[in-house]
Amino acid sequence: MKVEAVGTRRSIVGEGPHWDKRSSTLLFVDCHGREVVRYDPAYGAETQVISTEGDIGSVIPFAEDNRQLALCMENGLYRLDLDAMHKELLVEMLDTESPVKSRLNDGKCDALGRLWTGSAPSKLGQGPVRPKYNFWCYSKGQLKHKLHKVGVSNGLTWTNDNEVMFYADSLPRHVYAFHFDLADGNIRNRRVLVDFLKTPGYQGLGFPDGMTID
Q: Which family does it belong to (predicted)?
């Protein structure tokens, strides 16, 4: 595997890369810089930078129209129309038990287009992080709560056969595996796949964060 820098941007907290195959561009966010960025590898440059006027965790284009973006932000999920540059709240996702301000973090859609996202403290260093955050699934106007007592909700992905969902909670340094039912979106039989404090070969590597699968 070869890792190389793309561009010269210095984000405050760069997160949530999403490859938009319809435009052949890379979308990502600067959480605390409050921006959505589009990078075009054909030009080797950023071709669009959008202010979100709030902390943001991830960005995902809508399947039916990639000029419409789903934004996982401080208090919920928004739709951003890139032509009208209008932002609309779709659903609130609030952490009523959080001792500090929180925001949505990593988000991703499953094979049927349901959007999964979870929450985390808006800024670390505001005091001890407690497992009081949440993990949700949103589809067709309906919000379903999936997990509670999450520490710092982070990356997720699925196996190619859609039988298993992987999910990272950074606070306990765990990557979990769930049995995943694609038809109804249910998750069950949670197990710790990797413990970054105990699993041989992973100890001392830090905290699990974003995730993908090839």
A: Belongs to the SMP-30/CGR1 family.
Query: Residue 153's pLDDT is what?
Result: 95
Distance between CA atoms of 56 and 54, rounded to whole angstroms?
6
| Structural tokens at position 205 | 């590597």
List of the chain residues with pLDDT < 70: 125-129
Binding-site annotation, residues for a divalent metal cation:
15, 154, 209
Q: Identify the CATH number of the domain in which residue 84 sits.
A: 2.40.10.500
The three-class DSSP label of residue 77 is strand
Is residue 37 a contact partner of residue 47, using CB atoms and an 8 Å limit?
A: no
CATH number of the domain enclosing 198? 2.120.10.30
Residue 209: active-site member:
yes
Residue 121 and residue 132: Cα distance in Å, rounded?
10
The domain tally of the chain equals 2
| 76 and 120 co-located in one domain | no
- How far is the C-alpha of 146 from the C-alpha of 138, rounded, in Å? 10
Annotated binding-site residues read 15, 103, 105, 154, 209
Listed in sequence order, the residues at least 6 apart from 61 whose beta carbon sits closer than 8 Å to its beta carbon are: 18, 20, 22, 27, 68, 69, 70
Return the bridge partners of 137, or none.
Answer: 116, 144
Of 61, 92, 123, at which residue does a domain stop?
92
